[in-house]
Structure formats: structure tokens, C-alpha cells
Design brief:
153 residues
Length: 153
């Protein structure tokens, strides 16, 4: 639990120290799209197939909510604050791959500290999971920005 709180506090500090590039509507949209994406993946892989779980057993605990409410949204907000919009597509793809690998590395650390336990999940699945989550969040962010420009309010 201390590890999770440390990661959450670190992410919060990073988020608030960084210059604000996102509008409030984008923050709102990213927060809920990342939360929804994480819930959908966790419901499928953790809930339906019981491939991994957080904490000491497969039951739902407050640690589950900590992951979903803090780590996924904060990570996605930082990812988008730093997103290289002006670079070409290759660099953007490499950027997303780098973030997916970074989160996989963090997950590996939490696996070593028994914060996450695998029950059929393999670590090499994680970059794909995070990559898909990031792509969904990025798509939602782009759509939100376009809709915000079109909105008269």
C-alpha cells in the first residue's frame, strides 16, 4: 500500500509541477476515458478471466479503487501533457510505446513487491494492454478537442 501511495503522490506532484497545457474539458474527458478504459480492461482480464489481481487475494479491495482512480487517470494526464503533437507520426507512436513500456516496468516493480499478483497473466501482455488504453484515451482526447472547438459555448 505504501508503494501505491508513493506512486500516486509522485504522479500528483509531477502533474501539478508541469505547465498546464490541457483545458478543463480535456482534463475531464481524459480522466473519465482513462478510468473507463482501465475499468473495461480490468473487468475483462481481472474480473471475467481472473488473470491478475491487486492486493493479497482476488477479492475487490480499496487498492483496486486506488489503481483506477489515481494511477490510470494521472498517468494519462501526464502522458497527454507531454504528448509531442508537432512531431511526425513515427515519433508519436514511439512516444506511446515508451509510455507503455514505462508502465510495464512499474507493473513489474509492483509485481516484485506483491502489490499485483498474476494468475495466468503474463508481463509481456501488459505493454499491449497499456498501448490500447493509451490509444483509446488519445482518440478520446482528439475527439474532445475537436468538439470543444466546434462548440459555441
Amino acid at each position: 500500500m505504501v508503494v501505491l501511495i508513493s506512486i500516486a503522490v509522485t504522479l500528483l506532484l509531477i502533474y501539478f509541477i508541469m505547465p498546464q497545457k490541457l483545458k478543463r474539458i480535456e482534463i475531464y474527458s481524459v480522466f473519465f476515458s482513462s478510468l473507463y478504459s482501465a475499468l473495461a480492461f480490468d473487468a475483462l482480464f481481472k474480473g471475467r478471466f481472473n488473470l491478475y489481481y491487486y492486493g493479497s487475494d482476488a477479492e475487490v479491495h480499496y487498492i483496486d479503487f486506488m489503481f483506477r482512480l489515481c494511477l490510470y487517470p494521472l498517468t494519462c494526464l501526464i502522458l497527454l501533457k507531454l504528448f509531442p503533437q508537432k512531431l511526425n507520426m513515427i515519433w508519436r507512436i514511439l512516444y506511446l510505446i515508451g509510455w507503455a513500456l514505462l508502465l510495464t516496468l512499474i507493473e513489474w516493480g509492483m509485481l516484485q513487491l506483491y502489490v499485483i499478483k498474476y494468475d495466468g497473466w503474463k508481463l509481456y501482455y501488459s505493454p499491449l494492454k497499456y498501448g490500447l488504453i493509451f490509444c483509446l484515451v488519445l482518440l478520446n482526447w482528439v475527439v474532445t478537442k475537436k468538439l470543444a472547438k466546434q462548440s459555441p459555448a
